[in-house]
Amino acid sequence: MDISQILVNSLVRGAELSLLAIGLTMVYDILKFANFAHTDYAVLGAFFAYTFNRIIGLNLIFSVILAVFFTGIAGIYIDKAIFKRLRMIGAKPVTLMITSLGIAIALRNIMRLIWTSHAKTYAVPLHKPFEILGARITPLQIGIIVVGLLSMITFHLVLHRTTFGKALRAISDNSDLANACAIDSEKMIRRLWFLASAYGVIGGSMIAMEHLLYPRLGFDIIIPVFCATILGGIGNPYGAMLGALTLALAENLILALDLAPLINLGGFFDVGSIQISTGYKPAISFMILIIVLLFKPTGILRKK
């Protein structure tokens, strides 16, 4: 595979994963637990978008915007009904993490009940791919890269130019001091759930648009999302973006690698081209995750 094609594929994959990783790392940074239901929130939003787009017949972009709103509200109410109660009784992070795993399983089965297990697609028209510097890229993939870039810029502006963003950073640095300064932590947490769910829906919808939408999708992408988050430095949103791009590049480089020269021992055996199947992409993410945890558990951009 040409290096330009590897870079294009990595940008598309990185844009999708970064939006999911941002939401995951924000929740961890503020609430101090790994939310295993995060990718299932994203898939729930993708199914909302599918309903608005394919069943009701709304424009795809407007469908995703509506899905962001409904999934954000769902995230707030799940927090109010479950996580807030656990916080009030002083539940440990491991309890919150296991609870999120239960919520993920529940959401997955609810989606199966409502939308069945059959794979679904959005009303995305097929277009002939463009060729840019030897790489083939579709209009949909260009849109994914642009939306990912704009979403990251928007996140930076929200984090540094709004009262909400400044309050979140204050709670992250010192929650007790933030409360003493009259910052309503619970109100900020509700907004955090909405924002994390919103970014998850955008990322999940982009993955579903490029591939397929099915209830198990959240489970299938949870390892790459966690890997990107930990690789970049869990708790650091900019690290999540960098980790997603790094993971995407590593995946595509390994998939493009020809193992024949290694196996034929310099020509001793007559072996044709050997490449790793794309079906092993989750295994690549898992191996990278293990290596990072063993040798640099703080990630690339350690949270200060």
The overall pLDDT average reads 87
Order of H and E elements? HHHHEEHHHHHHHH
Helix content estimate? over 70%
The amount of beta strand, in percent, is under 5%
The gyration radius over C-alpha positions equals: 20 Å
Strand tally: 2
Note the gap between the termini: 39 Å
What summary fits the major beta sheet?
2 strands, antiparallel
Strand order, sheet with most strands: 1-2
Number of helical segments with 4 or more residues: 12
Structural class: mainly alpha
**Poorly predicted ranges:** none
Give the overall shape.
globular
What does this structure look like?
The chain has twelve helices and two strands; from the N terminus they run H-H-H-H-E-E-H-H-H-H-H-H-H-H. The chain is mainly alpha-helical and 304 residues long. The protein has a domain at 11-217. A two-stranded antiparallel sheet has the order 1-2. Helix 1 (3-31) packs antiparallel against helix 8 and helix 5 (139-161) runs antiparallel to helix 8 (185-210). It is globular.
Question: Which descriptors apply to this entry?
Answer:
single chain; mainly alpha; globular
Quick structural summary:
The protein is mainly α and 304 residues long. The chain has helices at residues 3-31, 38-55, 60-88, 93-115, 139-161, 163-173, 175-180, 185-210, 217-232, 237-256, 260-263, 281-295, and strands at 130-132, 135-137.
